[in-house]
Specification:
Rossmann fold, UDP-N-acetylmuramoyl-L-alanine:D-glutamate ligase, binds adenosine-5'-diphosphate, transferase, nucleotide-binding, 2 domains, binds potassium ion, alpha/beta, eleven-stranded mixed beta sheet, binds ligand NPW
């Protein structure tokens, strides 16, 4: 896992208190950008630096000075109002031959470096900058954002428009705002630039995390003297759309649950899944998948490890599961907005829920004591106020039923005794990896392909 910070304030404060000057930090930041440019761009090419008047602009100006001589560097300022650092950097840059231009000329540009706004973005962009971004974003030059693509704020929301980067270099610490759903189409590849201090020097235990491929912990079968009962009995409650529940049940089985049963009406049930009238013997249950308005009796299962999904988010019965530290709630944003209202935690629209997802997810996990897995392009797992994000999934997963498969994977882990948090983290990673391994076209993956891929992780 990589550590994510809400902002780099703590890093900046720590570095400055140790005696670093802002100019030293900027020198390191600029060097990180310059190194990437040298890897990606032939020398001699023309680079346009878009500069704001704050420290994000200062980083860009320092970078132009470093590359000047090997590349043709032009600075374009979106403001005449420069802070002292930016002015000092500009004075040096001009002396070494960097050009300052009064209009951004995109002809023959090989690369655009975005140093307009970083962590200091405090309001929506104005019309002039939005127009500039429209022109730049459709240009085929290499695009590199310094710290944040301009227009993306620290909460991961777009303030009117946003620079569409191929690469974003996060300065000093990886910031959580770079991993929102909307950020995924704006940041390009995100990497961290070390500003002269290791992460461990300033990161505290209160931070959030970005999951990595190596965090995937598959259910392992090490002992030989075992039987099906050793791997748990998973149950899925079926509803008005039983196919959805059957897909979840199949995913749970393939993910290693020893036995899988469904409760509810199902025609053409696959022979590997058992049909039951009640939840007797369940080690873990999934409920809500394809439920609709079907009747459910949860009295016997509300204290079990469980996945609470889909339509259950809108129904009164979900309240009876609280508090249950072994519960994994798996809403998509619309269901999340409904769930917040249903549990009396917040009465907000889907848009508001999306906008404030990080803090709402954190608070939800504190209030319910369970695990939240808020689905999206970059799903968020929240437990006990800590967030775990995953940016490894892809748009192949945007197909009806992929959430049902995810619920089934979580169920498979829960049945085998994994904690709710471990089940959610591993399930998100297994889901993403199965999609990543899929060999067909982006548009053709079905939930059944996704389930099949679980066999080969
Ligand atoms: N601190 C350090 O030690 C280090 C900092 N580093 C770098 O500095 C960056 C942070 O620098 P920063 O704090 O100066 O803010 P920054 O992002 O340049 O923007 C502020 C300017 O933007 C303006 N402005 C804001 N919103 C606007 C809008 N919508 N439309 C128009 N204008 C708007 C705002 O104007 P004002 O609100 O004052 O009118 C102000 O002039 C950080 O991301 C990283 O790159 C590291 O690399 C090295 C260590
Ligand atoms: N563009 C995307 N990038 C990454 N993951 C995605 C994307 N679109 C959907 N997903 C994932 O696919 C699943 C969709 O779940 P959901 O919306 O509940 O679908 P359904 O109810 O049809 O099964 C979630 O796990 C979500 O995170
Ligand atoms: K920027």
């Amino acid at each position: 896992m990589k550590t994510l910070c809400k902002s780099s304030t703590k890093f900046d404060e720590q570095a400055l208190s140790l005696g670093f000057s802002e100019l030293i930090l900027q020198e390191n930041a600029a060097r990180g950008v310059a190194e990437l440019v040298r890897q990606k761009l032939k020398s001699g090419e023309k680079i346009l630096f878009l500069c704001g008047g704050g420290n994000n602009g200062s980083d860009a100006i320092a970078c132009a000075r470093m590359l000047s001589g090997d590349y043709e560097c032009e600075l374009y300022f979106i403001t005449g109002n420069l802070n002292a650092n930016a002015q000092a950097q500009l004075n040096i840059a001009l002396k070494v031959g960097v050009n300052r231009v009064s209009q951004p000329d995109l002809e023959n540009i090989g690369c655009v470096i975005d140093g307009m706004f970083g962590s200091g973005l405090s309001r929506d962009l104005d019309a002039e900058i939005i127009l500039l971004l429209d022109r730049i974003n459709t240009h085929n030059a290499l695009k590199i954002a310094i710290d944040f693509p301009s227009g993306l704020d620290g909460n991961g929301n777009i303030r009117g428009a946003c620079f569409k980067a191929d690469f974003t270099l996060s300065m000093g610490a990886l910031k959580i705002g770079l991993f929102s759903d909307v950020a995924k189409d704006m940041t390009g590849e995100v990497s961290l630039v070390n500003l002269g201090l290791s992460d461990n020097r300033f990161i505290t235990h209160q931070e959030d995390f970005l999951l990595e491929r190596t965090d995937l912990n598959l259910p392992s079968r090490t002992l030989q003297n075992v039987h099906k009962g050793s791997f748990g009995h998973a149950f899925v409650a079926l509803g008005q759309m039983p196919g959805a529940g059957i897909m979840a049940a199949t995913a749970a089985l393939i993910m290693g649950a020893g036995k899988v049963s469904v409760v509810g009406k199902a025609e053409n049930l696959t022979p590997q899944i058992m049909q039951k009238n009640n939840f007797d013997g369940a080690d873990a249950v999934a409920i809500g998948i394809g439920l609709g308005n079907a009747d459910i009796d949860i009295s016997a299962i509300k204290h079990l490890p469980c996945v609470l999904d889909a339509d259950l988010c809108y129904r009164a019965e979900i309240r009876e599961f609280l508090p249950n530290p072994s519960a994994v709630f798996t809403p998509h944003p619309k269901e999340f907005s409904g769930l917040l209202r249903n549990l009396g935690l917040a009465d907000i629209s889907i848009e508001e829920a999306i906008k404030n997802r990080f803090e709402l997810a954190r608070e939800f996990s504190r209030q319910t004591k369970g695990v939240l897995l808020l689905k999206g392009a970059n799903p968020i797992i929240a437990y006990n106020g800590t967030l775990y994000l995953c940016n490894l999934g892809s748009n192949k997963l945007s197909v009806g039923g992929s959430g049902d498969v995810l619920a089934g994977i979580i169920l498979g882990y829960l049945a085998q005794g994994f904690s709710a948090l471990e089940a959610a983290k591993n399930a998100v990673l297994a889901h993403a990896k199965s999609a990543e391994n899929y060999q067909g076209n982006d548009y053709s993956m079905t939930p059944l392909d996704l389930i099949d891929g679980l066999k080969y992780l």
